[in-house]
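Hello,

Following up on my earlier ticket. Below are the three sequence lines again, exactly as submitted.
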Amino acid sequence: MTQARTVAEIASYLGGTVQGDGAKLISGLGTLETAGPDALTFLANPRYASKVAETSAGAVLMSPGGERYGRTAIEVANPYLGFAKLLALFYTAPHEPLGVLPAAIVDATATLGRDVTVYPGAFIGKNVTIGSRTVIYPGAVLYDNVIVGEECIIHANAVIRERCRLGNRCIIQPGAVIGSDGFGYAPDGRGYYRIPQIGIVVLDDDVEIGANSCIDRAAVEVTRIRRGTKLDNLVQIAHNCEIGEDCMIVSQVGISGSAKIGNHVTLAGQVGVAGHLTIGDNVLVGAQSGVPSSLPANAAYSGTPTMPHKEWLKSSMIVPRLPELRKTVSALEKRITELEAILKQPRQEN
Amino acid sequence: MTQARTVAEIASYLGGTVQGDGAKLISGLGTLETAGPDALTFLANPRYASKVAETSAGAVLMSPGGERYGRTAIEVANPYLGFAKLLALFYTAPHEPLGVLPAAIVDATATLGRDVTVYPGAFIGKNVTIGSRTVIYPGAVLYDNVIVGEECIIHANAVIRERCRLGNRCIIQPGAVIGSDGFGYAPDGRGYYRIPQIGIVVLDDDVEIGANSCIDRAAVEVTRIRRGTKLDNLVQIAHNCEIGEDCMIVSQVGISGSAKIGNHVTLAGQVGVAGHLTIGDNVLVGAQSGVPSSLPANAAYSGTPTMPHKEWLKSSMIVPRLPELRKTVSALEKRITELEAILKQPRQEN
Amino acid sequence: MTQARTVAEIASYLGGTVQGDGAKLISGLGTLETAGPDALTFLANPRYASKVAETSAGAVLMSPGGERYGRTAIEVANPYLGFAKLLALFYTAPHEPLGVLPAAIVDATATLGRDVTVYPGAFIGKNVTIGSRTVIYPGAVLYDNVIVGEECIIHANAVIRERCRLGNRCIIQPGAVIGSDGFGYAPDGRGYYRIPQIGIVVLDDDVEIGANSCIDRAAVEVTRIRRGTKLDNLVQIAHNCEIGEDCMIVSQVGISGSAKIGNHVTLAGQVGVAGHLTIGDNVLVGAQSGVPSSLPANAAYSGTPTMPHKEWLKSSMIVPRLPELRKTVSALEKRITELEAILKQPRQEN
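Thanks for your patience. The regenerated structure is below:
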């Protein structure tokens, strides 16, 4: 499947330096534990440095100056990034466009760029625009007037509702829903009157959306996710949210309506964010935290409700000891009462 | 796109009162910040009352007697509800039925009412009944013997499994699953024996289900959601649950099997509800709370496990101060020991 | 619909013992509350034993030696398991294979076993292998090189991505996604470089996956779920996880990358599990808990972060009383200060 390359060729591809046998032939990649003599592995976490001594790998990608235990090594500044690039080099087949395949349903008014692939069973509505080299998998549904950029991948059974817009190189995993109606209702005295959700969703370039994640269209204007932000699976983004650039939104996070998230924000798994608040740039929120109000930039938070992460570490360690703390307090109370009895008895009855 | 109407016409449509220029022509809607001179906006939250002075909007929908800063206003009892109705009036095109489109898969035994729309790629099984004016989007799958009422909207790739029943005016967002098997297994000594889930799901009139939400069929009888209740995205309703009327179930809530939820209950985002319990009418449960046992009606609760909301507000404010509290207790202990040393030394060794 | 059977026939089918009228004809099943004179019910939970006196059921499935209040009873060691088997006996129609139906999209290179059913609108990619008697519902999408075993059920709009493998008797509920890309990115100084996810997902025999659940493919090797494990709806399994045999993963649980879960583990609803940790065999984790690090086998845990379940029960009962505890501590502080004033004043100023 994969084409063999010399260590020297690989080093040159990554802009790295060979230590050892540059002529050695590498035909694949593996972990420190599983890579064989014709495979390359990598060391990114210094914690595992000693495993280099034991690996059977033919070569190791590592930081400059690391102990290579006599192995052939390629030194690069960021071995993890280098390994990711080699995964693409070795294992990703060049994309071959297939055109509009039989049993694909493409409205006559849709505009398709060059080398677009539309699989059987995909549905492309009226006036949809699809950029060049984009791939639409089976069962994906693009409602009327959707715009999708170039080199996007829309996986099977993903849904993009009317008028929503995707930039270039967006990847939508299977089952994700872009542009479902926002959850907006006005009580009318008897029950709830549905507020029409007439806005859209805009995903900028390089945004990726995980499997079965949901992004609601805005009530009136735009729910927006900016360049480079990645959403994991089963994430909920409510209507009118604005998410900044290069954020990492981990699985099962829920963000309520009209929240504004800055750039380079990381929300760990199962975090909940209340509506109409602002999270500053470079914020990191720990798993399962609940964010009830705005969070200043450049800090880490945890807990429900959120507090600075370090405070949470301390207070969450005390929670299991609360029974002990209460016992201590009760014991102190008795001792004080005893002291009072000794000291005050002569002076006061109570 | 939208048709212009005079302020007086709009006031008459809503049953409101004009203050100012009733002849002014309005051609759209916007927020206090974004509406231009030919657009109408609304003031629902008194917190933003001062923004009326600065808005560029041609007219403001507001409560009777509010300060209108010289703007043309339409006074109505519920400006938010009025605005919702105007969104529908201005921006919602009248529905045009399209019939059964080519490449829709409709079993010959299915019964379709008048003016039904079935998009290409939708699947309608044996003996399915679909009420008049209902719309079935591409990729939606209705298993055998499903019954769907009138004026429903079943969005793309939603799935309704065998024998489940929907009332009138139900809306199912993309990817939602109605009638998946309940999670029921009987340990048989070696592993788990699957308990057949032979019941169904019944959604009453005006129920709406969010994108990628899941409602499991009952083991034997009915999982039921009553009139007017709305579910947000990614909600889980387990088998045998009964949800009352006009409830709001916010995103990522999970309700375990056989739970009974009253009327007008609001469960905020990511709440978890244990099985075989009852939540009374008009209960409000705060975000991320965990409900381990029944909750009496007409009250607000929060926390895991849930407690009255006001208690939770107080106790959750102390959690970040637990380290300080523990330090205080340690200091008190020392001071008591010191006092005891002074006071008791002559009398006892310990 | 269902065929009537005598109590004696049913007892014989289950290997149980008749107490009372073995000739009585039973034509269906019901609960203690709803079963009529021609229906059989069951008593599994001793808590409901007194309901046997009031049931209208024609017969009761119960444990040997239970009080039957004069009812006809069938005694079996595990009444719940017995009832599950009778549900299958009475209500599950024998499966009739339908073959590849019109409008199913099956690539010419796919290999289908005997008696496979492929519904209209299902998509079967290149070189896919499907075992005998497996059923593929409408809108299900199997990417290229997928292998599915015998007697599997792939429900509507489920997606199985390239090269993933399912054992025999697996059931995939609607909308579930098997093999979506793992959430792996390497920071490259400007944004995130997508790490190709070239691994697969392997589900062993008798694994069941709930509606709209997501299982990510491994980065390089295999995300694996072993024999007999059941996942509820909306569960997230990240890349490289290994889940053992006969686990119960309840709805909305999220398991982070590279976690190893033992055999017979139960994770209750909305639990979150961090990455790169190990959970031992027979562990039970309570609902909404957050597992930050490895958990030893054969124990129950709860809380965020997790602690032994019994400790959590105690400490979580104190949380609502924290305001009271703090008040107590403040009062003690005053009393100590007062004591100190009395006792120390003559000796020291401070």
